[in-house]
Design a protein that fits this description.
This protein is α+β, with helices and mostly antiparallel strands. About 55% of the residues lie in helices and about 10% in strands. It is built from 20 helices and eleven strands. The strands form three sheets. Strands 3, 5, 6, 9 and 11 form a five-stranded antiparallel sheet that branches. It has a four-stranded antiparallel sheet with strand order 4-10-7-8, with helices on one face. A two-stranded antiparallel sheet has the order 1-2. Helix 6 packs antiparallel against helix 7, helix 9 runs antiparallel to helix 10 and helix 18 packs across helix 20. It starts with 9 loop residues before the first helix and ends with a strand.
Length: about 575
Amino acid sequence: MTAPSERSHEAVAAPAERGSSALASGGRLRKFAVYPATAAWAFALYVAGGGLYYLVVQIPGRWFHADEWQALTATGSGTIVDLLDDHYQHWITLPLLVYRLLFQLFGLNSYAPYAAVALGFHLAVVVMVRVVMRRSGVAPWTATIFAAVLVLFGPGDQNILWGYQITMTGALLFGLVHLVLADRPGRRILPADWLGLFAGLLALMFSGVGLLMVGVVGAAVLIRRSWRPAAFHTLPLLVVFIVWWLSVEPDSSDIVLRPALTDLPRWLVTAWGSAFEALGYFWIVGLVLAAATVVGLVVCWRGEKWDVFRHHASLPLAMAAGFIVFPVMIFPSRAGLGPEFAGSSRYIYVYCVLLLPLVAFSVNALVARWRAALVLLCIPLVVLPLNATVHSFFPASAFAHQRLVMRGVAASPSLQTAPADLIPDPPYWMGNPQVTVGWLRQAVADGRFDPQAQSIPPVILAEAELRLALSQTFSPPGVRPCPDSASEVERVRLEPGQTLTFESGTASAIGGLESIVVVQVRPIPDPMGFVLRYTTSEGDRITNVSESSLRLSLTTSDREPWRLCR
């Protein structure tokens, strides 16, 4: 029986054995090195155990978050053209199809299927990383140990636990499939190349990371084969992407803060440094891995003829080039959020997937020449349990309140009478600006959301009633929210149809991140102890759309002067 992810590949077996020569000098070490099936089955069991851990421990209790609501609600005109729309300049046709299928099958009744799909993509990426290592001549156990670091990868768990991040893991997965299918000697185009090209197209349709992977594949094929196969694997996909871009004309107005070019060095240092620190857990250990990567690559390059070296090193070198380029690629659209954003969980995941094959390749070269280098294999073994304790994404408990509120809103009798365009969960922290009363009402009617599936506390039902009674909107263009004669209010009795307006300083609290004010609304009396929060970036008016008068207590954040008026 052939072990999972192991292939009978003559071109790989020879370098793998050479990479294991330092290990094969003694009895137990020899067994450790020369049985690839044992290493592959050990890896498969660890991957399965890691997946079970996420399914049983990490996924239960989670809920839809941020961009996922747009994927669920953005039906548009219902035509195929809507599937081609961009999302923050990303082509996300395939994630949208996945979410629409899951919504038809499971609705909002359970988040587990959505998270399970994301988990499946993650584990498949990990397997493909090990495949790349083995094809590059990395010894079986070295590949197993280093690839295992990604299984329970806490620093990048945003891409593991958040369903919507299939946009990134999907692009990585199909990009790696494309890379492996294109990895062979010779200039002749075979069926495997056509399959690889199709996988590259799928990667493009997951997110902009797919475009990066097209470049990675092109670089690898150029190093190992020649420019003609490299052009075959890149130019058609680039043409497709350019046609999509020109047809859709992605909107860049969401990029509120543009970075200065002087921010680039710090951005790059943060990005590259965060990757090595994540792989080593401690920054000093990450520095050791970085040094070992450079030294091992030089040793391998100097010890082999160019034809042999490029045969083994094309995949890890191309992926490492992607690791270097990716932070530069996202700099214009994301660096305005601050240099620390380069070390975000979602990006660390991508960095490490791209970087790890070169690290393993270099360490493998050192181990093949000096037995003392075996100590480097202890680093990932120590890091495995440490990184499993890191949680860079929200814990499941962070979603509990929002999940209950949505159930409370769906169970409320007021859902049937509230305006269809009212947003019951405004986008403060984890709100859902795309979820309207009309959409939620339809989901309940279609049986895709059963609010009674979980008991709802009275305080949540009371909060849901108030959410359905208040509608947030903008003042008409050119109309000042609070005239000079308006009186400030902190406690108000808001009759049906009456509107409360809020201003920041002497100007409207709308227009930019610096003028955002958070308005906190509490009912009077307040026996339940809950508060509703509205950000002025989503509107400067709150209107009572219910049939009852509301007595409210109002406070705001103290970032700048403010006033509330009628």
